[in-house]
TrEMBL record:
The chain crosses the membrane at residues 6-25, 37-59, 65-87, 108-126, 132-150. The lineage of its organism: Bacteria, Bacillati, Actinomycetota, Nitriliruptoria, Egibacterales. It comes from Egibacter rhizosphaerae. It comes from the Bacteria. Keywords: Membrane, Transmembrane, Transmembrane helix. This is DUF2306 domain-containing protein. Residues 159-183 are annotated as: Disordered.
């Protein structure tokens, strides 16, 4: 009974985190006072997921083989890193020092992609060759997540750098000169 409750808490918080996490990835959405509850909700969902996971590992520990103990100890370690990155992301949003948006996004992306990996590993474990399916799932998820994040960042981060020089113009000579009248 306890194990079933812990599994439901873990899975429910994970699915909730996947849904809410999509909204908190944008630095713009977390700066508005009315949206800070989303950031807190995401943190609470991840906390419930991690606490339930650690409780499940502790409950099952006496019955686990040595290899499974290593794997679950590693998962608990990953959980600690997820918690650390979540706290760091929240700190960046709270302090809002120069360039905070990129750091916030990187921290929250780590937590969010970790939720996806956990969600996708479960079916991969049931495949005929899990020792191949699990690493392939992790690598595919990381690759797709990285590509999506790279496309997403320019849309949500402030543009603080000058645009790159046009192709074929190593010295930037094709760029229009700044106007003299504006000085």
């Amino acid at each position: 009974m306890l194990r079933t409750v812990l599994v439901l808490l873990h899975a429910g918080a994970g699915v909730g985190g996947l849904i809410v996490g999509l909204r908190v990835l944008s630095p713009r959405s977390v700066t508005a006072e009315r949206r800070q509850w989303l950031r807190r909700l995401y943190a609470a969902l991840v906390a419930v997921l991690l606490v339930a996971m650690v409780a499940l590992v502790a409950l099952d520990w006496p019955h686990l083989a040595a290899g499974a103990r290593v794997a679950f100890a590693g998962l608990c370690g990953l959980g600690a890193v997820i918690a650390y990155r979540l706290v760091r992301g929240h700190r960046e949003a709270r302090l809002q020092r120069h360039g905070w948006q990129a750091r916030y996004l990187d921290h929250l992306y780590f937590t969010y992609i970790s939720l996806w990996i956990g969600f996708l590993i479960v079916p991969a474990l049931a495949l005929p060759v899990p020792q191949v399916a699990v690493p392939a799932t992790v690598l595919a998820t990381l690759g797709i997540g990285h590509a999506l994040l790279a496309r997403y960042k320019p849309h949500v981060l402030p543009h603080t750098q000058a645009p790159p020089d046009p192709p074929g113009s190593p010295d930037g000579s094709l760029r229009s000169a700044p106007s003299e009248g504006g000085r």
